[in-house]
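Me: I'm a chemist; would you kindly supply a protein sequence with its structure tokens?

Assistant:
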Amino acid sequence: MVRNLDMTSLRSFVAIADAGGVTRAAGFLNLTQSAVSMQIKRLEEMLDVDLLDRSGRKVALTAAGEQLLGYARRMLTLNDEVFGRMTEAAHHGEVVLGVPHDLVYPAIPQVMQRFAKDYPKMRIQLISAFTRTLKAQFARGECDIILTTEDTVEPGGETLADVPLVWIGAPGGQAWRQRPLRLAHETNCIFRQGVQAALDDAGIAWEMAVESDSTRAVEATVSADLAVHTVLAGSEPPYMEQIAHHGLLPDLGRIKVNLYVADPVHSQAVEALATLIRRAYAVRAVRGPVEVTVPERQAG
């Protein structure tokens, strides 16, 4: 009797091997953890072998699983090549991009526009959240690509830019002269503690003017000249400006803009989007207009 392996189950098996666990694999595949587990169970029953060693804290491949992995990769590669050559189905689906709100402009809208032209049948889901939130979602496999603002870069990430953190306030405002200095930062803003520590080191008294995770509340308070805020240089909202404090406020150092891409990359489109983001920041680094060119699409 002829029996056929299920390609969906094989794809889940390879994703588990690559991601190191069922939970992350489910995130990469946009499936529930239970759905992935059921697919592996069916595959094990079909082959009458155990593919995963579940005895330890982390899922590992059995000897049979290791043997199947090479076959599965070749079968999936051939499957995807057929669809890539015979149809456009290889470029259907969704890419999830996570970006902190202060990094959205000016590059990301143009990157998304260029990507949509090259991959018209791919959807981009843009998530705007704090760096801590995005990194947690990325670790769970819920984002394909994230940008972060951090003091350092973690393994697996790459630094796209190194940008000064600057003080901003209302145009012509005087709030920065007041003592205690009134600060407006969202509760989960990654810059908040560092800014407070810099003021403490400088001996400048401060107080929080906003206790909220609402960016709108922060912007309204600062634009009303009731507090000051900090952003990456170049990302100031149009109704605020850098404060010319002439050294009366502490220097805040520089922040890294980091890129993290899901490993492994399960879609050519994900890598193409990452390439567009890299190019956008490379253009900004040489002070040119924020434009991105479209990477060549590979055949198939």
In short: Residues 286-300 have pLDDT under 50 and may be disordered. Residues 25 and 191 are 32 Å apart (CA to CA). The chain has two domains: 7-87, 92-300. Residues 92-300 form a domain with the D-Maltodextrin-Binding Protein; domain 2 fold (CATH 3.40.190.290).
